[in-house]
Amino acid sequence: MLVTGPAAKADEQMMCLIAGASLQATVWAHERSVTIVVVAFTPTPPKPSGMMVFFDSQLIAMDPMTAVQPVAFVYRVATEHGERVLRVMVPGISPGVLCVRQVVVTQP
Q1: Interatomic CA distance for residues 93 and 86, integer angstroms
Q2: Looking at the domain 2-106, which fold is it?
Q3: Tell me: the pLDDT tens digits for 56-87?
């Protein structure tokens, strides 16, 4: 995944982001719907982070991140066939840190 903005690699499987940072990947939709799974948490519970998930330009979810251990967030998205951009980002005003362990896209 492409990383933009202020971020740090915590280990080989985890990237931590702060306000304005994002992870982005191009995916190919073969089916009319996809399932997006984001496994994430915050190491800063007193200042919880926000998490926004986009599929192309469509905002799929905007969730507060209060989990202090990795939790799976599952989103189902209707789409057209073809190349799409998946982006997970931290809102620009978010005070905390978002650590992303895994992002998975599945199709029926």
Answers
A1: 21
A2: Jelly Rolls (2.60.120)
A3: 999 999 999 999 999 999 999 999 999 999 99
